[in-house]
UniProtKB/TrEMBL annotation:
Reaction catalysis annotation: Endonucleolytic cleavage to nucleoside 3'-phosphates and 3'-phosphooligonucleotide end-products
Function: Hydrolyzes DNA under acidic conditions. Does not require divalent cations for activity. Participates in the degradation of nuclear DNA during lens cell differentiation.
Protein's UniProt name: Deoxyribonuclease-2-beta
A GO MF label: deoxyribonuclease II activity
Family: Belongs to the DNase II family.
EC number(s) given by UniProt: 3.1.22.1
Pfam family, one: DNase_II
Cell compartments where the protein resides: Lysosome
GO terms, biological process: apoptotic DNA fragmentation
């Protein structure tokens, strides 16, 4: 995903609850119903001339379903899961929300060519201080801010980030457990730009105690090879299978996710904003991980093949 949209999606709900009744804002399904979480996979635009794909089609899964379904909506419409969810913020605030206040919700044209993933989780306010600390480590680029003074004492780091205030107290990495509104547990891995290593191999795989299959953008001469040098390995996914006759390569995919290798005891799925690339070690970012079996099975079925270690 583009950085602006990706950060917006991951940070959506704890920003959205400020100043409005808590019950009115949550992740929303395509039918407009409140859900505990949802994840989507925006498919890449097909390169062949015969294909009618626009680069706006997507797969969708939420807390009320068991597997991917291909959406009848396009992701740039207000009836998509992102549109339905973000529309709550447009309606609640006179100043509106990204990407452009005057135009309302849209999907950036630059995001059409490659595949992307995103996740939305509904959190209660008692999780916000923990999220506030993670934001300090991730240090996202802030597009727009509005934090009522009521929350300034509790959300110290978010206020500083909005003011573009530098901090010398940023840890190199931090892991927390978050709980969704309906009690689903999520791990959140956050790294700063001072953690100069591959987040997948050096930290996540070892902490989750599982071999990982990692799907990230495989740009030529900018990818890291599969890594088997540590107790828990990381293998690069090379191709994604949408159906029996439809697949695409990692080179067409700007998604960033990983799952436990099939057959391992710990079945994790993680979605985030960092590639497996030497240059990404110098970037801050993170991943949110879950052991939800429906999410795991949905992503596991997408793996067509992956690269073993040399």
């Amino acid at each position: 995903m583009t950085a602006r949209l990706q950060r917006t999606t991951l940070a959506l709900l704890f920003l959205g609850l400020f100043g409005v009744p808590e019950a009115t804002i949550s992740c929303r399904s395509e039918e407009g119903e409140a859900v505990d979480w949802f994840t989507f996979y925006k498919l890449p635009k097909r390169q062949d001339k015969e294909s009618r794909k626009t680069g706006l089609e997507y797969l969708y899964l939420d807390s009320t379903t068991r597997s991917w379904r291909r959406s009848k909506q396009l992701i740039n419409t207000t009836k998509s899961v992102l549109g339905r969810t973000l529309e709550q913020l447009y309606e609640a605030y006179a100043s509106k929300f990204p990407p452009i206040p005057e135009e309302g919700y849209d999907y950036p044209p630059t995001g059409r060519r490659n595949g992307q993933t995103g996740i939305c989780v509904t959190f209660k306010y008692n999780q916000y201080e923990a999220i506030d600390s993670q934001l300090l480590v991730c240090n996202p680029k802030i597009y727009s801010c509005s934090i009522p003074s009521t929350f300034h004492q509790e959300l110290v780091h978010m206020r500083k980030l909005c003011a573009s205030s530098n901090s010398s107290e940023i840890p190199s990495r931090h892991l927390i457990t978050l709980q969704s509104a309906q009690g689903q547990n999520f791990f959140h891995f956050a790294k700063s730009d001072s953690f100069l290593d591959d987040i997948f191999a050096a930290w996540m795989a070892q902490r989750l105690k599982t071999h990982l299959l990692a799907e990230t953008w495989q740009r030529k001469r900018q990818e890291l090879p599969s890594n088997c040098s540590l107790p828990y390995h990381v293998y690069n996914v090379k191709a994604i299978k949408i159906s029996e006759h439809s697949y695409f390569s990692s080179y067409q995919d700007h998604a960033k996710w990983c799952i436990s290798q099939k057959g391992t005891k710990n079945r994790w799925t993680c979605i985030g904003d960092l590639n497996r690339s030497p240059y990404q070690a110098f970037r801050s970012g993170g991943f949110i991980c879950t052991q939800n079996q429906h999410i795991y099975q949905a992503f596991q079925r997408l793996v067509l093949y992956y690269e073993n270690c040399n």
